[in-house]
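Project standup — Tuesday

K.O.: blocked on the structure for the chain from last sprint. Re-posting the sequence here as requested.
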Amino acid sequence: MRFTSPTRNSILPFLLTSLPLALPGTTSAAEPSREQFAALVEEIWQFSLREDPLFATSTGDHRYNDMLQTVSPEDSARRNQADEFFFERLEAIPREQLSVADRISYDILRRQLHDSLAEFKFGSHLTPITQRSGFHIEFPELYKNVPLDTTKDYDNYAARLTAFGAHTDGNIALMRAGLRSQQVLPAIVLEGWEKAVDAQIVDSPEQSLLFDPCQQFPTTVPQSEHQRLRAEITAALSESVVPAYRRFRKFLAEEYVPQARGSISASALPGGREFYRHRVRHFTTLEISPEEVHQLGLAEVKRIRGEMDGIIRRVEFTGDFSEFTKFLREDPQFYADHEQGLLNVVAFALKKMDGELPKLFGNLPRMPYGLEPVPDYVAPRTTAAYYQRPRGDGTKAGIFFMNTYNLKSRPLYTVEALSLHEAVPGHHLQIALQQEIDNLPRFRRYGGFTVFVEGWALYAERLGLEAGFYEDPYSDFGRLTMEIWRACRLVVDTGIHYFGWSREKAISFLRDNSAMSEHNIRAEVDRYISWPGQALAYKIGELKIRELRAQAEEELGERFDIRGFHDMLLGSGAVPLDVLEANVAAWIAEQ
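H.V.: unblocked you, prediction finished:
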């Protein structure tokens, strides 16, 4: 089990050669249950940091700053054995003897361990990459995500570059094991894989993105060390990183891609239907079936389409829905002429929302956020935008990455909703606040549940209606396009992975029910294919938050305080939906 951000993967450390060395000793049975639980939580946390050094660095723990994760089928098995050991110890602690706060943490930890064990059973670790994520895509951004302020930081950076060769070979070993057990990605989502890999195979180290820290050293690194550090990093790039990417390219071209499966459904994998049912429960945190999710999605699509049709009538467009979306996709008034133009529109929306936040929240994060374009080497194959959380030591802000590739696929009418989702009051506000909750166990400060994180961000888009956004009907149509896109996910994800839909049927469903660009539709469908179940979290989480807000408004009437309600929702971090429901019930009772 790894305590990582719900929106990012990690990389790792500390080779523990046997389970007794990897696992802490048991605590005394005579200790009170609360002390036992606190000790176990700390032991699991320390284990997760040792096992995943980049995650440790991101939380502000710098003990493993010169390491990467050790990766191999044996390492995965060892970590699974550790999860089993921790799960048994957790089960032995009498939950009823814990405080109310500790019971919440107990239930969350139990759920995380349980799901981690299930993921291993289904072989998820054997597909460590997708078309838009994985070690090969994330590693070139290493220099943006680690400290580079001192000579020691640069030495650590060089050590991590040197370790990348073994890290790559370990991932290749995992993927070879996946080939043997038929746990392999669909061929369709691997199309165009070369771009992300080839961008890192450079003729000279100076051409690598990872050489960037040597272009200009900070003043805190003595001039006398520059030549030595530049030489170390140059050697690591030429002797470890670039050869590793060459090996990975050869493996993909000659072994992996030729054996990629023709099917796109998770149900086609060994034990696939059971695996997908697990994924539905995992990402929604509810006891809900794929059939129920599919029907819920169809109902939401129908409801939102009705609102979209109302806007078409409002702007007095004479054609039908498909003609209107064709107009939106093709009319140049809805698109920026250049990259900076798009970023300027995004920045304006964000700054406007910054000024409205105090009307909706009593607590705001101390940590700021920034705006950057998605890196060129991954932009063609990734989604419209994503967010990267702040570093735990406070030395790096959160970043909203906006995709500026193919500007004719980045409509301006979706910018307000997209910006509110990724930054404020969406991901940045929620995640930065969570990391600043001092009395929250660290595994909850730096972890969480996708259904809450993404459900909140989708709810945050809707909050724009209460903050003076979407005054332009086209922008409001863009908001509904974003919402119906998430409702379509309930239909499309279950359709692909449980009901046997083809890729083209999924693309057609999105095309017929949204104003998304063709490029975005195809990129999104491929994302759902390669990441079964994750796309369900958004709409399921948002619907639950809206349901709980309606309940609170009805029961409290004039006593309902929107700022207090939001502070309560965010005050426990990203929790599963049953915990969220209990928190709201307790808050209503307190009012």
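K.O.: great, moving the ticket to review. The mean pLDDT is 93. The first helix runs from residue 19 to 22.
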